[in-house]
């Protein structure tokens, strides 16, 4: 009997593939796509689209596989997961994501159009997708982008998940978009999940004065909670606000993704329940 380790082999995420994608405007993206091995429902698979795909994709796929493996317990069925990222190995491409995810200079509008008019139809040629069960999720700048998408194209997705949205980064633009959205919303309420880590705004023992000042300036909890409460009061969105205790701006990501999967694939929370 031979003991010990054998030659190593690359770990492959079952059902996942990576594609190089060139948009019509010449922008290059890396698309990470997970397609369930089960037969699709008659209407097609639900689909969750993630921005910052390199950072979020693997955890979201594992959360979906775990939860959909016990549908009697979780109420979650298999779904297609699409991670939209950028060429290279960096989890977050700082320059590219700023141009795509922030509302300034029309960048978020352009990227949203690329998602809706190009990328999702292309993924639909790989596997049938249910157009009535689409979700969009993002973290930080990605969470801000999700809010922008909600206000600009509320009909485009059935569920929006804004994780730790960096509202401070474009507060005036976002507030103006929110005002237009609430003033002209229809009877249908998009579902919105807003999440934040419980430690994102608190001063930590090891904080430098500069870091502590940045936490106060960003107001991650207060901005997210205030937005969620306003949207709930307006009746424009069916909103859930969740604080993950003891999590910071980075450690909160897996918790957010696990909740995002449940929120997108089965309705969790009561519409209008936006208090921490």
From TrEMBL:
Keywords: Hydrolase. It comes from the Bacteria. InterPro entries: AB_hydrolase_fold, Esterase-like, Siderophore_Hydrolase_D. One of its GO terms (molecular function) is hydrolase activity, acting on ester bonds. Belongs to the esterase D family. This is Esterase.
């Amino acid at each position: 009997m031979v003991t010990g380790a054998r030659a190593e082999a690359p770990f492959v995420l079952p059902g996942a593939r990576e594609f190089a994608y060139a948009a019509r405007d010449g922008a290059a993206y890396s698309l990470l796509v997970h397609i369930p091995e089960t037969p699709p429902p008659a209407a097609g698979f639900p689909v969750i689209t993630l921005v910052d795909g390199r950072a979020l994709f693997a955890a979201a796929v594992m959360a979906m596989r775990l939860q959909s493996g016990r549908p009697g317990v979780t109420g979650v069925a298999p779904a297609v997961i699409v991670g939209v990222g950028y060429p290279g190995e960096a989890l977050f491409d700082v320059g590219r994501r700023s141009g795509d995810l922030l509302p300034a200079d029309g960048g978020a509008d352009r990227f949203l159009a690329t998602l809706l008019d190009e990328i999702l139809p292309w993924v639909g040629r790989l596997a049938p997708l249910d157009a009535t069960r689409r979700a969009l999720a993002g973290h930080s700048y990605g969470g801000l982008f999700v809010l922008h998408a909600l206000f600009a194209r509320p009909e485009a997705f059935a569920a929006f998940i804004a994780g730790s949205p960096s509202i401070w980064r474009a507060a005036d633009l976002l507030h103006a978009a929110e005002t237009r959205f609430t003033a002209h919303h229809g009877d249908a309420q998009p579902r919105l999940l807003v999440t934040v880590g419980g430690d994102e705004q608190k001063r930590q023992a090891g904080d430098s004065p500069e870091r502590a000042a940045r936490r106060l300036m960003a107001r991650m909890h207060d901005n997210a909670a205030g937005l969620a409460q306003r949207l709930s009061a307006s009746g424009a969105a069916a909103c859930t606000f969740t604080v993950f205790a003891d999590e910071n701006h980075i450690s909160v990501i897996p918790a957010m993704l696990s909740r995002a999967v449940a929120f997108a694939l089965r309705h969790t929370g009561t519409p209008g329940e936006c208090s921490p």
